[in-house]
Amino acid sequence: MSQPVLELKNAAIYQRESLILSEVDVTVEKGEFVYLIGKTGTGKSSFMKTLYGDLPLTEGEGQIVDYNLRTLKEKDIPYLRRKLGVVFQDFKLLTDRNVKENLLFVLKATGWKDKKAIDHKIDEVLDKVGMKTKGFKFPYQLSGGEQQRVAIARALLNDPELILADEPTGNLDPQTSVEVMEVLQEISRNGNTILMATHDYALLLKYPSKTLKCDGQRVFEVVQKTV
Ligand SMILES: Nc1ncnc2c1ncn2[C@@H]1O[C@H](COP(=O)(O)OP(=O)(O)OP(=O)(O)O)[C@@H](O)[C@H]1O
Ligand SMILES: [Mg+2]
User: What is the stated purpose of this protein (predicted)?
Assistant: First the structure.
């Protein structure tokens, strides 16, 4: 039996008292690349936030990388996030330090101590996103696409069981979006599981994959038409 990394059953997603999504049944298996699409305001980010513990799950069942979202405690959240790699539209790099120091910051915060292992890990993740030679650059010295690749490298630091990317190409031009998507595809081919919210239909057509859609307060799987 395969073990899903994410499983929601009859879940409801709320922003405070407003119901955003209901009767959500979603399963993501290890190794899958899954899109989450839907018009603006349909609940993609709310869905993602519930998965990384930023919004509580108060109805239905939710299991993510061995955590039960219904019983998740405040103190569990940092540990849950270590098993997830979260990537945002606006990169969220620390602007006052260079690329390597951004990655070092996360490793230190998550308990890494061995200097050799740290250096090796930083090189490894930068290599995976094609940024090995840019470790000494500050975020402001990088293009948007490069900053996003660093953010993806950061998400990979603790070998996440699931990568959650909320509109990772939302701030990028079409060409750069494709470059960042190539990185995500490569990471996916290497066995990582990825759930990516997007409303970039060009990417969906270019890189078809399992697709979930938020619409009318529901999430359902859509079958992609091939062109
Ligand atoms: N912090 C918040 N407090 C209250 N309501 C919110 C909050 N954030 C979002 N909402 C509401 O929840 C609904 C879903 O928003 P959400 O951000 O999840 O949509 P989205 O699909 O990610 O949209 P977009 O494509 O613009 O990113 C919207 O009606 C929005 O107004
Ligand atoms: Mg959003």
Answer: Part of the ABC transporter FtsEX involved in cellular division. Important for assembly or stability of the septal ring.
